[in-house]
Each structure stands twice: as structure tokens, then as C-alpha cells.
Predict the structure.
Amino acid sequence: MHTVLCYGDSLTWGVNAHTGGRHRHQDRWPSVLEAGLGGGAVVVNAGLNGRTTMFDDYGVAADRNGVRVLPTILATFEPIDVVVFMLGTNDLKTFVSGSAVAVAQGIKRLVEIARSTPQSEAVPAPGIVVVSPPEPLSLGPVPSFPLLSPRTAEWGALAPGLGQLCRDLSVGFFDAATVASAAGGGDGIHLDVPNTRAIGAALVPVVADMLAQREARAA
């Protein structure tokens, strides 16, 4: 049985902004991905609200620094066949980094960690897919998402920058904005059920192909 690790923030955890709670288990995108793989893999939802790629946020209780926590998560669920990263939204908060370039650097470091962390049973390093998150809309009563980067052009640079990074690193890339939008999510940043499910469904062929390639190399 394969293991797929989904490492993300509240969009992966499954925040329901309308209720302040969480989407049902079957409606979170990692669960939709698992169902779409047809029993071929266990998909671990390692999402955490507020997680960044590599930055500290001391205004919250749990450690949100993705780089610092990732080795522990990898060791907890190994052996892992594929890691799906969907992070970056929280990096763009004004008090975190506010820069698409910083997101790319954080993702680069996460990829390095996933590739270099040893796995038991002589399992090779996992395949990696980087997902660029959907762009937020206007947040709350104030437009232009002031909690995030005031330089809204950063959002336009995010997906192209991550796409180029993934080509340079030879890892998979998917732009979630091609299938999902924050419209209808309730707060301009989180996703409703149809949009969060759409991400999981779109990732099925991407992850399935990566798993098939690993099986072929192992044969």
C-alpha cells in the first residue's frame, strides 16, 4: 500500500469559514484524492491552520514553521511514496514575508528536506508535487486582502514562480487556481466544499501517474 502525504495549511486541513469549523472528512481535498486513487494509497492529511513554508508566527499556539516541523512529520508517516505540498498563502501575510520569492525559497527548502530525509525499508525518496494555492479574494470588510501582501501583484507572481522552481527541481507542479476559487468560501481565502473537492479530484491523475512511475522503477 502506498502512502501519500499532503502537507499544507488551512486549505488542506479543511477550514469551513461559514461555520468556523471544519469540512466533513470526505469533503477535504486529501480525502477526495484518496478516494480517487481507488484504494491504491493511504492519503495522510497533514494540514495545519496558519502553517507557512519556513517562517515563524508566535501569535499562535502550535509551531507553524513548515521547514522545522516537516522532518518530524516525514518520520511519523514513513515510508512515504509521494509528498504533496500546498503552502504559501500564510507566507504572504504582511507580518510574515509578503513576498512570492520568499514562498518559492521556502518551498525549495521543503523539497530539499523531503528528498534528503532517509526512509526505512530502503524506500527511495518520495516523489513530490507542489500545488500553488488559489488566489484570495477581498478579505472581510476591507478589500484587497490587507492581512496578506499589500502588493497584490505578488499573487500574480506566485504560480509562475513556483512553476519555474518545480521545473528547475524536476518535481511535479499543479496550479490549484485552474480548478478552484475562494469565491463562495465565506471569507475570501478559504474554500467551500465544491472548490476544495475540485483540488483533490484534479490531483488524482497527477499523483496516480507518479505512483505508477515509482512502481515501474521498482519492478
